[in-house]
Amino acid sequence: PASGTLRTSAHVGTDDDGVALKGHVGAGGISEGDARAAARNSGLRLLATIHRALGGDLGRVEQIVSLRGMVNGAEGFGAHGAVVNGCSEVLIEAFGPERGVGVRVCSGTATLSGVVCCDVELRVRPPV
Description:
By secondary structure, the protein is of the alpha+beta class. It is 33% helix and 23% strand. The protein has helices spanning 32-53, 80-99, and strands at 6-7, 11-12, 63-72, 103-109, 118-125. Strands 1, 2, 3, 4 and 5 form a five-stranded mixed beta sheet that branches. Helix 1 packs parallel to helix 2 (80-99). The longest helix is centred in the N-terminal third of the chain and has 22 residues, at 32-53. It is elongated and about 45 Å long. The model has no long low-confidence stretch (mean pLDDT 94).
C-alpha cells in the first residue's frame, strides 16, 4: 500500500464453521470462552485478508500497528480484553511477540451491527 500501512475492515466473530456468533457475551448469553474462540477465528480471517492484500507474503508485515476489538457485552460484563485476547494470540503466534503486538483497544458495547458477539479490525505496517 502506498501509505505504508494496511488497514482492514471489521471481521466479526464466528464459530469454527464460519457462521457469525450472535448475541451478548455474559449473563447467560454467549460464554466468555466461546466469544474468545470467535475472536480467534476473526484473527485467522484477518491473517487471510492481509495475506491476500500483501500478495501472499505475510513476511512483508513489519509490525502490527493496532488492533481494535469491540465486544457485544451483556449488562455487567467486563472481560472485553479477555475476549479480544483470542485475536491477539493469533497475531503473536503468526508474527512473534515483537512484530505481533501493537496498540490495542478493547471496548464493550450494548450492541453491534448484526448483533454479533464481537468484531475486530487491524492495522499493519508492511514495507513501502
